[in-house]
Amino acid sequence: MKRLVIRPLLALFTIASAPAAAQEALGDTAESGRKMEDGREGKGPSGFIALGPGTTPAYDGAKSYQLIPFGIADLRWKGMEFELRGLRARLDLLGDSPVQFGPAINLRFKRNSSSDGDGRVKLLDDVGQAVELGGFVGYRFGGDEKGQGEVAVDLTVLKDVNDGHDGLVATAQLSYAAYRGGRVFVNVDAQANYSDGKYMRSYFGLTAEESLRSGLAAYRPGGGLRDVGAGATLGYRLSRRWGLIARAGANHYLGDAGDSPIVEEGSKVQAIAGLALSFSF
Q1: In terms of residue numbers, what domain contains 128?
Q2: In angstroms, rounded to a whole number, what is the distance separating the alpha carbons of residues 15 and 19?
Q3: For 234-269, what is each residue's pLDDT tens digit?
Q4: Element (H, E) at 234
Q5: Residue 48 sits in a domain of what CATH number?
Q6: Can you give the pTM of this predicted structure?
């Protein structure tokens, strides 16, 4: 039976505490959220913020879930666009162009197996907090004057520089603006996530010592395609300034990640959901 863990507010925006698959699935929400705005272009900054509750698996491969604050924000000024999703942020230096390019950062909180783990996973070593730095490139095309039909593709590559997992992660994403009405938008998206061997061994591997301690088989995964996922984002405009954004998605572990004893003890399917109240300015 799945259990639900309620986490304290570790930070105002703390989606980065979610496992990787859920975290990356949440990323498309902000791209959808920019469609909530009234489209005005002023001399000063413009954008939106959105806050609300969300739920994600407690760690990579978990069958238990945790409640988290669900927060996103966009800020556009002087042809650039700053995007914040939880504790993941990026700066699009070409915000007025269909081409997207710029730096990116993500914070990933430690995995505390003794408090977060399911069953025997509680007996495994913790994984330290990671600070992932890198960049992204993307391209948007198509769509009518409302943005309906727009397709966006992007690739983000990040490397941990804080001795958390010491690895490299990459996410390729495709999103489609399926519907743009007077008050409603609907986006659908798909992602594929790659992780190198250091990341995989940190979150999905087990040393001989951990195997003896937990009773799970020792396991040394290699790098490769970690998971694929899909999701949908729905937005509804309540007024000129206020709106609602809802997100639901799921990822499925593949390859060495899917074969991990940690995932077998938990679940190969990692679902996420969130509901936020947005304010445009």
Answers
A1: 4-280
A2: 9
A3: 999 999 999 999 999 999 999 999 999 999 999 999
A4: strand 224-237
A5: 2.40.230
A6: 0.84
